[in-house]
Known about the structure:
single chain; alpha/beta; 8-stranded parallel barrel; 8 strands; 11% strand; globular
Amino acid sequence: xxxxxxxxxxxxxxxxxxxxxxxxxxxxxxxxxxxxxxxxxxxxxxxxxxxxxxxxxxxxxxxxxxxxxxxxxxxxxxxxxxxxxxxxxxxxxxxxxxxxxxxxxxxxxxxxxxxxxxxxxxxxxxxxxxxxxxxxxxxxxxxxxxxxxxxxxxxxxxxxxxxxxxxxxxxxxxxxxxxxxxxxxxxxxxxxxxxxxxxxxxxxxxxxxxxxxxxxxxxxxxxxxxxxxxxxxxxxxxxxxxxxxxxxxxxxxxxxxxxxxxxxxxxxxxxxxxxxxxxxxxxxxxxxxxxxxxxxxxxxxxxxxxxxxxxxxxxxxxxxxxxxxxxxxxxxxxxxxxxxxxxxxxxxxxxxxxxxxxxxxxxxxxxxxxxxxxxxxxxxxxxxxxxxxxxxxxxxxxx
Length: 399
């Protein structure tokens, strides 16, 4: 993870000159050295061997991207799976300095929907291949179970049973494979009840650990994995776990123009950070009561870097209180109408705050409405061309 550990070559040697200096100055330097070491060590770090091994896993998730609309949120037809993401995409991601990919996987690809929830063994070839490509190109990979959102805020017992069987199969299949594989239990769990979600997590984890005690598990926060959900979370009953959240605040800005969210389809030209004059001009051209509610909220918040830092506080407090690692599995801005310069400002501010807080992250997304390609260049040049990337965004997040 960026800035998580200071390279050995840069580590100060507390024994080198302290004894040769006056006592007062020596004490000052010793205090300074301790302060540097405290900053260099991750906040969640303990002293056990297990903690050191988990620290290595955290380092693998420094910077990444989501391969969306491939094994989830797509038709799942073989011809599309075989063409939408190929090995060259893994190579390109690694070449620009990313350390991992997060791969959303629809459970329907790997398992039938109805009892007895038959495993579709024939479709594991796609996931096997993704793991091979990641390994070949020195990338860690997150297997993220990513079903379509349900219509309510509960997870039925039948769904838990289905997920339990599937995770048992995944763990059995990949238990001997690279330790650079991560298991993410469920994307954006919709439960509002933190205790209910924790119970489900422990059920799924028990099934995984029955056959695979090695691979690191990723647990998302309840309530759609929003950062504020960390305020009432408790850790699960397993030590080899990283806790994840998604960051899209403020949605009036990050999702302006999004036709899948009520009220935001006609919202456009929203500035970040908040600028009163520009905001008033934009608001004059936006009609409709649903949109006005979003605009009222944004005007009230006057969203900026300080507000991002405020919204990250529950995550940081959770990490500090329970001494566990955290990770931002999704963040981004919908590109359709968001002003380009403001989009860069948002990415830069969030990535900088995450990096300073020693939190790894993955952009949403590689292809799609939030993607990392320049639309004009991607049209003119061949697909998967390094020169077609939107380097302004990539540099904004530190690549």
